[in-house]
User: What shape does this take?
Amino acid sequence: MATGFQPRTHAHEGDIAVFLIGLRINQVWRPDLWLPALRAMGPMVAELHSARAAAARGAGEDLGFLGHRTLVGAGGPTIVQYWRSAEHIHAWAGHGDRAHRPAVKAFYERGRRAAGAVGIWHETYAVPAGGHESLYLAMPPIGLAAATGVSPLQGRRRRAALPGS
Assistant: This one.
């Protein structure tokens, strides 16, 4: 569904963290090891969205999670998450009562049975205010705009600052 030809950008102001996490199946014949890792992602993302909704209602803690997008490619699935800060990511991941800690523990326990059957990876990028940009033209909200809302681009300088500029 196209949304017209009016340029738009994301509505977020300030710092942001982008967290990428992915999974790669190295031994397709070992679904007993990779399927649980794949299935563990859904409850973690659901927990984050549920906490975000509760915080928006004033009924829960704001974990700093803004939204996510799931991509599927030849290397396996990748989840792109948007957060207020890298500190928020680390606080959620390290909290013993959240879904992440038990999932990681179970992953390592399964991994000891057949090292390398499934691989996981993640990358965290802390982006300062003014260091992120987005442009959406004839597109529904996607990525950062889906996580934070959209704003008209017209009349706003929404270009990431380049060193020396």
